[in-house]
Specification:
This protein is of the alpha/beta class. It is built from twelve helices and 17 strands. The protein has a six-stranded mixed β-sheet with strand order 2-3-1-4-5-6, with helices on both faces. The chain has a six-stranded mixed β-sheet with strand order 8-9-7-10-11-12, sandwiched between helices. Helix 11 packs across helix 12. The structure holds guanosine-5'-diphosphate (2 copies). The site of one guanosine-5'-diphosphate has 16 residues, from helix 5.
């Protein structure tokens, strides 16, 4: 099920990133690091009681130097309104209520999105300072005093946020439509692919920067099944709006990934791989989505019989953190291998939902540990007692063992590879959680 998004909005220096780190640090659910994505983190998984959500710090979204601070803030706020289920609006007790706060508050209020008003830098415990009450003037209801540095008050805002989020305790029945997000840098050909798939040039609407864009998803039914292509910022043509909008598309693609079961990570064959490609891909990986790397504009590449093999090799290296993702060379223009892409989407989606019985897993474990002895240190050897699958999308396994320390990353990798080999698992991340038991 897709996670709701909660966005943090507010002026510079009010403490957004401090609050973000506090909330993420406390409830960090991400289990692994992906190169290239963990630096300057803009988003993180948050867990609070029965709720899971994705927290996004809009303050971290590449600041636009020349836009002027108010415009920048408005764009951030608009982005949060468009993509988030709930918003944390952060203000600063020491600075008091500023005109910019009032401006943004007004925007948020008119949007009708649930907003929790945070008054940060209330460091002293005890009776709330009188200045706190000034913040009622923003018209966003009760101000919540918080000290992001110390963590005071964060429980209250998490609780309030969760009241606004959908109830996640019930299992939602799975749709027979596969949700697909085509993600990638501008101009790699995302909308061309969707247009090709839809078999028509869609009506394309130019959007003004900062106006509300309703997401438009596209239903596709063909001999491979039923699919929904999720709209991402890049899928809509913005006419020739200045590229300021593009800077804000990061969060939109994150939101699209969140809603998708399968992510098609699109690369432009004529320009090759860039750092930015690994960022979006890393996000899909971390969120446990089935992934395919699609190298588009294959028609425009001058090639001989070795070109594909060479490019594949290079990409395998670039995407080594998601070695499970199949790589396919397509052309959205001519339709080359788009059929095959649909086959792959179906396939990786089923892999993402793989379920393995505990009996089979433990046979595998017995064989794996017999073949390669678990690591030991100072006479103590890792013992893995038992392994079981706790969830799908992505397949997630728990290993109970005598010592977490001894369960080195390389041995985890080995177990993961054994699972992949045994079940032919491809196209999906796999998670292995380690639990100690005395
Ligand atoms: P952002 O620009 O909104 O992301 O703000 P930052 O998180 O970078 O914080 C701006 C400054 O305020 C930094 O110097 C922080 O250490 C400080 N700060 C953030 N939260 C608190 C707080 O709860 N109490 C105090 N005293 N300082 C804080
Ligand atoms: P988006 O920004 O990722 O949605 O990219 P577009 O779909 O708008 O494509 C950007 C440009 O690349 C357009 O000029 C397309 O005509 C061109 N393009 C897209 N796919 C292909 C392809 O498969 N082959 C070639 N030669 N050009 C393509």
């Amino acid at each position: 099920m897709s996670k709701p998004i909660v966005a943090i909005v507010g002026r510079p220096n009010v403490g957004k990133s401090t609050l973000f780190n506090k909330l993420i640090g406390q409830r960090l659910a991400i289990v692994e690091d992906t190169p290239g994505v963990t630096r300057d983190r803009l988003y993180g998984n948050c867990e609070w009681q029965n709720h899971n959500f994705l927290l996004v710090d809009t303050g971290g979204i590449e600041p636009s130097v020349d836009d002027g601070i108010l415009l920048h803030m408005r764009q951030q706020a608009q982005l949060a309104i468009d993509t988030a289920q709930a918003i944390l609006f952060v203000t600063d007790l020491r600075a008091g209520v500023t005109a910019q706060d009032a401006d943004i508050a007004n925007m948020l209020m008119r949007s009708g999105k649930p907003v929790v008003l945070v008054v940060n830098k209330v460091d002293s415990l005890g009776a709330p300072p009188l200045e706190l009450y000034d913040f009622y003037s923003l018209g966003l209801g009760e101000p919540y005093p918080v000290s992001s540095v110390h963590g005071h008050g964060t429980g209250d805002i998490l609780e309030k946020i969760c009241e606004y989020l959908p109830d996640q305790s019930e299992e939602v029945e799975e749709d027979d439509r596969i949700t697909v997000a085509v993600i990638g840098r501008p101009n790699v050909g995302k909308s061309s692919l969707v247009n090709y798939v839809l078999g028509e040039e869609r009506m394309i609407v130019a959007n003004e920067a900062g106006t509300t864009r309703d997401a438009v998803d596209s239903d596709v039914e063909n001999r491979y099944g039923k699919f929904v292509f999720i709209d991402t910022a890049g899928l809509r043509k913005r006419g020739k709006v200045e590229d300021g909008v593009e800077r804000y598309s990061v969060l939109r693609s994150l939101a699209a990934v969140e809603r998708a079961r399968v992510c098609v990570i699109m690369i432009d064959a004529t320009t090759g791989f860039t750092e930015q490609d690994s960022k979006v891909a890393g996000f899909a990986h971390e969120q446990g989505k089935a992934c395919i790397v699609a190298v588009n504009k294959w028609d425009a590449v001058e090639k001989d019989d070795k070109t594909m093999q060479e490019m594949r090799k290079k990409l395998e290296n670039d995407f080594s953190f998601m070695a499970y993702a199949p790589i396919i060379f397509i052309s959205a223009k001519t339709g080359q291998r788009v059929d095959r892409l649909f086959e792959l989407i179906k396939y990786v989606d089923s892999q993402n939902a793989l379920r393995v019985t505990t009996g089979v897993l433990n046979d595998l474990l017995a064989r794996a540990t017999a073949r390669v002895q678990p690591p030991s240190d100072k006479g103590k050897r890792l013992k893995i007692y038992y392994m079981t699958q706790i969830s799908t999308r992505p397949p997630t396994f728990v290993c109970f063992c005598n010592s977490k320390q001894l369960f080195h990353f390389s041995y985890q990798r080995y177990i993961e590879n054994q699972i992949r080999e045994t079940f032919g698992l491809e196209g999906t991340p796999v998670r292995i959680l380690i639990r100690e038991r005395g």
